[in-house]
């Protein structure tokens, strides 16, 4: 197969479909989402058979257990995909919304209209449910999509793609609105990220290595998520009970997630009061502590090295640093954090105002666990990912992050003098 | 000079200044803008002397007249820079604005806060006024800036930079909030566009060649403006008098600007009624016409080739095509336009609704001249450029386009269960 011409054909077809989707009515898009859900339900056996083929190939090639688990589909997971489709259908359609339409001194009206981005390329690893989740968000936001899943899930993804095409056709929308790349050749990714004429934005989902490689080589804008090195800062003026439960929740609620706390900062004046009880709770939860010297003077812990301030452990490990106060906390976060999510625990309005304004991260919180940084918790309904970029979409990216705004101007024969 | 370490030092200093500027109060930023204006006024002679040195070097090296004109400063142009600074000071400060702060079912409040992008790199050609315009917009939006102007303007830019530093210092803001690159070595640009750790976004201003080179090599997001291949479509249902004045204004008001019309599309049913009078008016204005076959059957014109549909003439030349109606007009625009600005002339609500929704350009207009696509006309107060990108900022980019939004979360000890 000539990968380059194959990918360019997908690109051309996606561009043509996206032109149609720009003007597609909300009703038709919702019909398609429901029809895809129906197709998944009716052809459940076919999808599960395809998944069995992937699992068998995965076992034969010695795939590790965690990857096999991500790859596996079962009735519950197909039901979850169907629920997801119905939830996306129920979300408000952002496309076409006109805002700030004001008269200007010249007599023209100027406003903004929310519009799809066009064609979105999604590159992801082995979870087949991403195929449905990503396709549904892109469809609802009026975009065409080219999906490139992991090679381990190729049969599952093709079976799901078949259900998606069925649903699109049933709603009278172009089948090529959602296309799944039908080759496991890695060159397909290289092509995808260098076709700005056909693809408007790339959303990679997967490990940091994958995302860094894609960002380095892409000639198309990338909405990316790198690390989640998240912080909780316990301020001088913290309520220590709130501090205790937030610091515990942010670390121990789930370990392998990007919005888990990785470094705890504690103001010097409350460290002796706050840390011992926390250390005991962390010990009970089996969390390894790595503290600065001042921390080590207060609780039992391993010594923290410079690396600990920049590491996303995704594991029951926590770095702890005692800081002089708010200034040092903000400076530490702005220097070492991955600009994902940070929390201050304080009862002081002034400290919270400064923390909210001066911490340069995609989510900044007061008296709440970092674990809330999530599209569902924020009311986006669903998310395609969490962006650690600063331009376009920051933080959890839902339907609105898959759109842009164009200017609209209304006149009645107006010319410029 | 070791360009790499020099540029990295500028980058580090800019990053440090940007941390300070994130929390800078509106009053301090406005004070700085006024103080820069004062410094330019008081040190006018020094700036004009420096400019004379640039002009002399330009004449000696055989710079063409148009470039010398762009390079030249005089009292009127310095007054215009001072006015510009005062206008930017008078604009509302977008930074810190909190929107959509709503309670979620979990009890947390979730909203968005508008924040500076951080450090903005501006790469431009020989106009020294860009130094002040770009610096003032970046400063007001709370960003630090690294400015790299054309080598022809190096003395002028350093003199202006000196006034900017004076103004920043007078307002108690870091002088390194605005830094002008002090070398004409081209390697400085190569460094600027590959320091994502210090520069958050690059805004190139200049010819298409410069912008394409920068975009191809950048490892930092680029807000770019490529061509303005703008269209006016005269619909079946157009008021032909409005069509006449809009089509004339869009082409002849100014030729060398990106929002001038380059191709006129006319619905077949009104072509015979509209084109002869327009052809006469264009002939009087000295505009060369290049028409499709159907156009050539109605008026005197040269033949249009495929190239004419994609060319930004920036000159008294106009391509004309007769189309069957709205569908062909939208398809032609979405295929050939540079996604800058397009207008429909029509009295029909249905046609205008479809055109507004389905034309994929940064500005889409009804019954108004394309010449209105401009930051001042849109009420942005000033613009750093017009973006033909689809992500982040589209169309005229003012203060808001130099900012992003982060999520803020307010709780009272809330944890996730």
Would you mind describing this structure in some detail?
The structure is a homodimer of 417-residue chains. By secondary structure, chain A is α/β, with parallel strands linked by helices. In chain A, 43% of the residues lie in helices and 20% in strands. Chain A contains 14 helices and 16 strands. Chain A has helices at residues 3-22, 26-42, 44-60, 65-71, 75-90, 129-140, 154-170, 187-192, 208-217, 240-252, 268-285, 293-296, 326-336, 349-358; strands at residues 98-103, 109-116, 119-123, 144-148, 178-180, 201-204, 230-234, 261-267, 288-291, 302-303, 317-323, 341-345, 363-368, 385-387, 395-397, 403-414. In chain A, the strands form four sheets. In chain A, strands 10-9-11-8-7-12-13 form a seven-stranded parallel sheet, sandwiched between helices. In chain A, strands 5-4-3-6 form a four-stranded parallel sheet, with helices on both faces. In chain A, α2 packs antiparallel against α5 and α2 crosses α7. The first copy, chain A, is globular. Chains A and B meet through β2, α10, α14, β13 and β16 of A and β2, α10, α14, β13 and β16 of B.
Summarize, please.
By secondary structure, chain A is α/β, with parallel strands linked by helices.
């Amino acid at each position: 197969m000539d990968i380059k011409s194959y990918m360019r054909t997908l690109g051309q077809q996606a561009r043509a479909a996206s032109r149609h989707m720009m003007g597609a009515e909300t009703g038709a898009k919702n019909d398609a989402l429901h029809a895809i859900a129906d197709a998944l339900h009716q052809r459940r056996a076919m999808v599960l058979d395809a998944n069995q083929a992937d699992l068998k190939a995965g076992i034969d090639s010695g795939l590790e257990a965690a990857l096999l688990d991500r790859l596996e589909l079962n009735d519950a997971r197909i039901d979850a995909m169907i629920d997801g489709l119905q939830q996306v259908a129920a979300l408000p359609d952002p496309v076409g919304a006109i805002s700030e339409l004001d008269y200007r001194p010249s007599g023209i009206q100027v406003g903004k209209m929310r519009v799809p981005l066009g064609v979105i390329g999604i590159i992801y690893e082995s979870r087949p449910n991403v195929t449905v989740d990503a396709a549904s968000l892109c469809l609802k936001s009026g975009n065409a999509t080219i999906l490139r899943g992991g090679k381990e899930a190729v049969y599952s993804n093709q079976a799901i793609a078949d259900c998606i095409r069925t649903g699109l056709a049933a709603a009278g929308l172009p089948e090529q609105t959602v296309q799944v790349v039908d080759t496991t050749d890695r060159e397909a990714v290289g092509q995808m990220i260098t076709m700005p004429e056909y693809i408007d934005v790339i959303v990679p989902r997967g490990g940091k290595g994958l995302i860094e490689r894609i960002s380095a080589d892409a000639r198309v804008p990338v909405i990316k998520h790198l690390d989640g090195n998240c912080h909780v800062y316990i301020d001088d003026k913290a309520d220590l009970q709130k501090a205790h439960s937030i610091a515990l929740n942010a670390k121990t609620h789930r370990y392998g997630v990007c919005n888990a706390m990785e470094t705890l900062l504690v103001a010097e004046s409350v460290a002796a009061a706050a840390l011992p009880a926390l250390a005991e709770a962390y010990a009970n939860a089996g969390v390894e502590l790595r503290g600065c010297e001042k921390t080590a003077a207060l609780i039992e812990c391993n010594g923290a090295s410079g690396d600990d301030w920049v590491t996303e452990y995704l594991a029951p490990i926590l770095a702890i640093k005692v800081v002089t106060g708010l200034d040092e906390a903000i400076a530490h976060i702005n220097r070492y954090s991955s600009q994902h999510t940070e929390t201050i625990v304080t009862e002081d309005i002034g400290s919270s105002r400064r923390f909210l304004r001066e911490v340069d991260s995609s989510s900044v919180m007061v008296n709440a666990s970092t674990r809330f940084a999530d599209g569902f918790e924020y009311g986006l309904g669903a998310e395609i990912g969490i962006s650690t970029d600063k331009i376009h979409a920051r933080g959890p990216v839902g339907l609105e992050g898959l759109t842009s705004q164009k200017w609209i101007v209304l006149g009645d024969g107006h010319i410029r003098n």
